[in-house]
Amino acid sequence: MKTVLGIDLGTQSLKLVFYEYRTRRVAAAASAPLDLHQDDHGAAEQQADWWLTALHAALREVGDDVRRSVQAIAVSGQQHGFVPVAASGEVLAPVKLWCDTSTVTECDEIMAAYGGPKKCLDEVGNLVLPGYTASKIRWLAKTDPQTYGRMDTILLPHDYLNFYFTGERGMEAGDASGTGFLDIRRREWSADMLAAIDPERDLSRCLPQLRRGIETIGLVNAAAARSTGLPAGVPVATGGGDNMMGAIGTGNVSPGKVTMSLGTSGTVYAHADQPIIDPRGEIAAFCSSTGGWLPLMCTMNCTVTTELMRGVLNADITAFEQAVSSAPRGAGGIVTLPFFNGERTPNLPRAKACIVGLDSHNMRRENLLRAALEGATFGLRYGVERLCELGIDASGILLTGGGVGSPTWRQAVADICDAPVSVLQQDEGAGFGAALQALAVLDGVGQGELQAFVDSHLVLDGDLSCDPDPEAVDFYDTAYADYRAAVDAVTPLYR
C-alpha cells in the first residue's frame, strides 16, 4: 500500500487523511482534539506544543503499516495565526489565532499609519482586520517587547508543522494572503505595510522564503521521523491555509465553482484567474495555493453557533437533527445573530450574539436550534451575494465542513441561497485537499493539468445533494430581509 498524507490543523481538532491513490480510497483517517484558551477581552490562543501533541496522538490511532505507507505529506492549517519563532526554533509565545479579536486597536493604528482603509485596498488588496496576522505582530511588540525582540521568524500555523517536519522555514502565498501584509496582486511582501506595523524594525528580515505554487518545501527529517513513525526523506509539499486546501479538495481550482464550508467559521469562496478586490473590503482578496486567486468571505461563527446552542439546550447530534427538522422554516419568527466570537463579516469584532423575535408562542427548544442554524446560514448567503456582485458565478454550491452531516442544514443552504447544493464523498475538504496537493507534488502535476487531476480523484455523493424548493426560496427571501434588518439595527451598538 502507498498513501499520501493530508494533515488538517484546525481550531478544534487536528485531522489526518491517508489517501491510497492507486485505488482512490481513503485508507485511514484519524483525529485528536485541540484545546483553545479564550478570555473576555477577545483573546483566542493555543500553544504550538498542543499541535504536536495532537499530531502524535492522531498518528498513534493508525497502524505502523499505514504510517510507513506514506510517500508524501502536505499540511492544511487554520489561517492568520501568529507563530513567533526564535533563531533556535523555540516558539516564543502562545499563538494568537484567527478568531482572536483582541487587537482591534492595533488594526486601526496600522491602517492609519499606512494611509487609511482605501489605500490598503488599492495597494495591498485587503483591509487589516482583527483576525489577520499583522495586528498580532504589533500587539506583541507593544505588550511584550522583550519577547518581540527575540523573534527571528514569523510563521503561520501550517508553516510551523512544515518546520517541525523539515526544519525549513517557509510561507506559501495563499496562506500568506491572510497576514494583511502581502501584496496579493504581485504575490510579494508589502514593504510599506510592514513599516506601518513597526516603523522601527525591518520585519522583512523575519519573513521566510515565500513560495508561490505547488512544490516541495523539504523532506521529513530524521528527528520528525523518529517521533512520528513516518518515513524519513519523504517530500513535504508547501501546503497552505485551510481554505486554500479546501479549494483543492473540492475541485475549486478553476473558475466556475463556489465552495461553502460549514466549519467552526463559515466560508464562501471561488477560484478566479485574476485578483478580485472588493471596494467594501468585505470579500477577502486572497491568493489561491494553485497559482490563481481565491476571493473569500468568512464569518466568525458557523458550527460554533450550533454547538453552543446544542450545549445550552442539551441536544446531542441526533436530538439536534430531530429538532431542526421538526421546527418550521423561520423558527417561528426567531432570528439569531450568531456573533458569539464577534464577527468579521460584517466587521464587528466587538459584537455579541443576539436572539430577537422571542415571544410566548415561539419560545421552544426546536425553534431556538433552528434559528441558530438559519442565522449562521444567512451570514453565508450575504457572502454568496457579494461574490455574485463582484462577477462570480454562484449558480451551484459545493458544500463541505462539519455541518454537511445535517440533512436539514444542507437543504437550508440550498433554499436560503437559491442554488443547488452538491456534496463530495470525501467529506474532509481541507485534509483531502492537502493529500491531493501532496500527490500532485509526487506526480509532478503541472498547473495546466491541475483541474483534470483533481477531478479524477473527486466523487460526488448523489444521496447528499439537494435542489432548492421554490416555496422555501420565496419564504427565505423574506426571512433573510428580516435578518439583515436585525443586523443593521444592532450594528451601531458595536461600532
Distance separating the two termini:
56 Å
Query: How many structural domains in the coordinates?
Result: 2
What structural class do you assign from the helix and strand content?
Answer: alpha+beta
Q: What is the strand tally?
A: 24
> How does the major sheet shape up?
6 strands, mixed
- CATH architecture classification of the largest domain: 2-Layer Sandwich
Overall geometric form: globular
Strand order of the largest sheet: 19-20-18-17-23-24
Q: Mind explaining what this structure looks like?
A:
This protein is α+β, with helices and mostly antiparallel strands and 495 residues long. It has 2 domains: 3-243, Nucleotidyltransferase, domain 5, CATH 3.30.420; 253-423 and 465-495, ATPase, nucleotide binding domain (Nucleotidyltransferase, domain 5, 2-Layer Sandwich), CATH 3.30.420. 39% of the residues lie in helices and 20% in strands. Strands 19-20-18-17-23-24 form a 6-stranded mixed β-sheet, sandwiched between helices. A 5-stranded mixed β-sheet has the order 3-2-1-6-16. The protein has a 3-stranded antiparallel β-sheet with strand order 4-5-8. A hairpin with a 4-residue loop joins strand 11 and strand 12 (188-189). Helix 3 (104-114) packs across helix 9 (191-197). The longest helix has 25 residues, at 365-389. The radius of gyration is 22 Å and the shape is globular. The model has no long low-confidence stretch (mean pLDDT 95).
Task: Give a summary of the structure in a few sentences.
The chain is of the alpha+beta class. It contains 18 helices and 24 strands. A hairpin with a 5-residue loop joins strand 4 (37-38) and strand 5 (44-46).
